[in-house]
């Protein structure tokens, strides 16, 4: 029960003294920040029998889970380990659709690598239901103003709309606001490589340098270029990875709302993007678009793209800013996104087919109606990080994963977006990206424990606070931890620990781990590191085959004209050339690879395809071949194994004419599973 201490008998005296009529609103546990980690902390604590207040500084509850991020990245984890409230939340999302007669393209009970997608309004409905059922008191528009402490103990919070007191507190903000106000040590930005002996620390340059000038005629950096000096490669800095919006878009005319035209649009702002497109050999859409239920897509910043939805450099200072400062940064990101959409759909430097493709999308009428159909939640990928009892680093993820006090098994790849965009003497290069660091041959990252100690401040700094989101770790570690599956389970663990500590009246640092473990398991968490199935044996012989060494007409994926979204990898071997393309199981019909060539002589040709067979592949990949008047459509089953010892499989035949252009098109239209595009080989048949 929430307790409000009234002093009605003493009201006249208190008023005369200028003191408040009411004392702070009290509960056993207060959670500050309704992020996914926050609402899970609140629900978990309430289910343990504690009275819980969930304070949210904005009027939006649910963080990015209800703010546009419409699949929670668990497809890149060992799904059997991300259970507890994360799994329950998804089961309830699935049930919400089932009760309305909507069939989703996945089953939560099946722990494969399918994307668990949902619409923002469904996520919000499920989140509210779970909070209501748990009896959590949710109060929005409560911005933290100050913290009152007695020694190492928080006594009370003052917000813009009331004071609040609890026995134990949970800081579940992305930014670590309560932690910082409470005087707990924290850091922000990136460590140098020597600080924790991390190979992925310091500066990172995995993206190709663009052969364009990043300077204007006066020698100054162009807009969207952040610096000409990135700093020493092995040193850290205060830069954080790029923020962006996750927009819910649609092509459906009945639900499509046109993008607002940006005020004060300046085409010169995108000169560096214009230069990039003019030299790009394989131009592509700069936004990642993930299919959702309801004929919608989730638009995201593309980690592998040179320019995308993230405004590089503009997020620095967000965590340290006050409410007004954050509002300005939020508006700057919205303005950039609107201007970028306008540029990508109108500027002549962007290929016409890409302009048309993006222009088909608008905002969704049935999402975020109170905010002009625009997400109110900026995607804060990282903020402050506590300097607590234990600092999780790269070593804990890749070398020493087991801990004696685990509260979650995390296995999302180490994965960071851009931090800087640098103009150099010979081009422009994005800095800070860490492309997903996965276990060899697997889609998931390295499974590892996050210890209870990592969400605990040092006892002398604060003894009744838990920090499951802005937890104690390095930038490299947060690059793996920062996704909703991990944060939701961390929040659940923090909520359980907060409830137990409140009942015991003891510092959170003194909570006995065996007792905590018992309650974590009772709330259906998984704490054991997974035993993964063995990988197939490595292929004998070469892992890469030079296309020039093969007979006939060989069309490697690097020669393809690409439309829509494609990913590139070299996980499965052997492959033709440097790797192969995949559509990331989008099945949206937009991923298309086109080859154009002239046959050296007319005749009938055998069509052979190279791909990596697997049960997760598409069983009906459409391949259309047009050569003069001759046209054939072939459907390739990529679950079928290749002939023993061969890199290609015969999939059909076609008549080619020498004097005309032949066009081959491979797409993911009507597919289920991953579409793989490695190479095609056409061999002239004997007559």
UniProtKB/TrEMBL annotation:
InterPro entries for the chain: CBD-like_Golvesin-Xly, FAD/NAD-bd_sf, HdrA-like
Residue ranges occupied by any Golvesin/Xly CBD-like domain in the UniProt entry: 558-682
Signal peptide range in chain numbering: 1-23
GO MF terms, alphabetically ordered: 4 iron, 4 sulfur cluster binding; metal ion binding; oxidoreductase activity
Annotated Gene3D superfamilies: FAD/NAD(P)-binding domain (3.50.50.60)
Keywords: 4Fe-4S, Iron, Iron-sulfur, Metal-binding, Oxidoreductase, Signal
Lineage summary: Bacteria, Pseudomonadati, Verrucomicrobiota, Verrucomicrobiia, Verrucomicrobiales
Record's protein name: FAD dependent oxidoreductase
